[in-house]
Amino acid sequence: MKKLWIVLAALALTALVVTCSLANSTVSESSCINSFVSDVDSNNFGSLYNTLDQNSSYYSEAKSAAYWTGGTGSPGGGTIFPSTENYTITSVNIVSTNTVTATLNSSSSILYNGVTITFSMTTDASGNYVIQTIVISGGRGTVFQ
Amino acid sequence: MRAKLFCLAVLLGVAALAAAQQKAETVFTDGDVNRKDTAGKIRSLEIGDKLATGESVITKAGASAELKLLAGSSSIKIRQNSVFTLGEMSVGGTKQTVLQTVVGSVAMKFDKMASAEPLLATTSCVAGVRGTEVELYAGMDGSSIVAVVSGAVQLQSGGQSVDLAADEAVQVKPGMAPGPKFSWIGKQLDFSKWDQGNLDDYLADPVAAALKIEEQLAAYRASMNELFPQLDEQKEAYNTAFAQLKALVEAKEDAKAQELRESTVFPLMQAQALLILNIRYYALSSLSLRRFVLGGMYMQLKTRHPLDPSNSALTGFLDVYARILKDFEDGIVPQLVDADI
User: Fold this and answer.
1) CATH classification of A27-144, choosing from 3.40.720, 3.10.450, 1.10.1760, 1.50.10?
2) Residues of chain A with a CB closer than 8 angstroms to some CB in chain B
3) Residue B19 lies in a domain
4) What is the ipTM, given to two decimal places?
5) d(C-alpha B170, C-alpha B147), whole Å
6) What is the model's pLDDT at position B94?
């Protein structure tokens, strides 16, 4: 009888661990955006694609850092974060389950000076949040879709 | 109240943009139908799947699929052994969807109420449509037939254009101007029979067929190369505007700086994006031609001469083939990304 209790307890613990690990395996909306923000803040443009929706039109081009910093391979956005400045994204606001807004600044406030950057979000087949489109306001327009 | 209105505007704008990037929905599939997504992954196409710009539908023997364009109710029927791609290019500064039949046969019926009708393309021609029902056949040798059921089509190839009305059709060889118009009233265009004729012609003179492909690829490359000086000009204009913007920011002329950003700097960045979009369009069209048409021609010939590598038709073809591949590597590959290949 005691053995049965031990086995049941072990099974319950295993189930709890599995459930927790499954719950932790999906990327939340805030986690996805924070990862994007962190990569932009550290000029890590070659990793931005990890936060993007694989079904977006320019996903394959956006895998290259050149998509973000200029040069060829950026049909949707053109030059988005040119290397003339560094960039920071602050004031992240999760507006809804599919919309996040934030404030984009460039280091010398030349190109972007407190402009709003809007992300539309979706979930992939595994339930991870990914970025579907990125729009920079002030007439800059859609830079990723 | 103002904040709520801003949030609502953001939500509505984002919803519209997310919907706009999805171009078509799958309403029917039969048999072995795959989609190649923009990440380069190939997986089964299912009813209800939405397709974005850059994605392709590939039907195997005996299979077919039907898509509905999400703008309006236009339908696209993709028949067996076809490769169909949803592309995009800039026309007059506006992004326009390009429905490209790379190989095989596709029937399209456009809703007259659709706000902006897309461009149609094969590897040898591009066509604009107005309230049209049209059939596109793309042959194994890069030839195309565009046949209008209703409405009107303006087709361009080899630097020339032709207007087609209902019941008119035209054949286009790669790299060439459109052939003479012909009426197909009462005739059933048979893709298989037509493409068998293409194959017979190709096998009779494979070198001539390969030279036509070389000509078409040269035309794509020339169109692409025309854009590079424009891109350089755009970049120079951007650098000049950026220097002006920097001076204004340093002089703390915030209002003037903001005006320059919105009136000049950001539009120049967007213009660069559109030029690059068109460079990519020509590069991807070249890739389709090289992969699905030239690759098919190579296989057809190679399998017919497995024990006769010195056959003159084969060696003549391989000479042109090697030249095309070298030009492709030098001129087109630098504009492609890993997922394309």
Assistant:
1) 3.10.450
2) 54-61, 63-64, 72-80, 82, 84, 95-96, 98-99, 101, 108-111, 113, 118, 120, 122, 132-133, 135, 138-143, 145
3) no
4) 0.76
5) 7
6) 80
